Predict the 3D structure of the following.
Amino acid sequence: MFNLFRSTVNIAHGYLKTVVKPGGVAVDATVGNGSDTLFLAGLVGLNGRVYGFDIQPEAIRRTTEAVIENGYSELVKLFEQGHENMGDFINEPVDAVVFNLGYLPGGDHNIVTAPETTLTGVIAGLNLLKPGGVMCIVMYTGHSGGPEEQERLESYLRHLDKKLYYVCKIDFLNRNKAPFLLVVEKASEVSMGGLK
Amino acid sequence: MFNLFRSTVNIAHGYLKTVVKPGGVAVDATVGNGSDTLFLAGLVGLNGRVYGFDIQPEAIRRTTEAVIENGYSELVKLFEQGHENMGDFINEPVDAVVFNLGYLPGGDHNIVTAPETTLTGVIAGLNLLKPGGVMCIVMYTGHSGGPEEQERLESYLRHLDKKLYYVCKIDFLNRNKAPFLLVVEKASEVSMGGLK
């Protein structure tokens, strides 16, 4: 049998598969090495759309190449922009938003996501979600500023209205310093938008 | 869209659906009002088997009736026994074991699961799991002895070998005193048995 719970990314992907369907719209808020962008493109297919954001030119360059190689150029739109600005580039409701917080694996470890822009990006993403849409945040806190980023983010999420958002933290109990997963699901019966 | 994360039970059921297949074998370690027994019976179907345990005669009586009404008599085996003894009654590997820790809803609130027998039951269940099999523990800690039960159980699970078991805790961040979910997945490549 297949082990869904063998890693945070695996749990997130298993869950996203049940939510993001062909023709859907998804956002990779932290493109990095592009693996989530490609994964989401595979889920939405040629009638869907994926928006990707990263402030690192190298991440956008590498991922652009991978997107072309995989035949996804028509449906993937990449922006060399921080995710805090995603609302300026996306004018449609989305099924899913994915964040990978920390640094770009194999990239410059001095360039990390930061508490302030992360929170702004998360709020922008929540406002874009369709009712029933989801946000998955994979969080590594080993980098400098990591614990502060976690604290800012969790204290925001703890105060989200429980009737509008289902907010779960998924943690490995028997691993040290493992990344963990935050899942925010927008209630399927509510209308969109309006977070400050 | 459907909200998987609207409750702990919902998360557990959504996950169990992906693991427990027709012809499979499952254990309801805390039968209670029988809802998990019936849910599991629906998943394994007429070629599968469900074992249920509860120390309360009323729980076994009610659930036996419901099992008959639903046409599951052939595949469900109920025991008026504590789950700590499940190893004495099950002689085959199982795909899933489900625990609901706390008291029987609508039943006698003085009869609750207890730290010692819970831990014994969990260990017995882990030993019965097939490679790739799962345990889902929905935990309410509001009852007397609840926090101690949680502490005993989590401190045991924290020390499970991370190569053999994937152990996750799924918690609601924006709810007070909500039940939470513990998931233990046995690695799919390991052989069975042997926990003390």
About this structure: Chain B has one domain: 8-195.
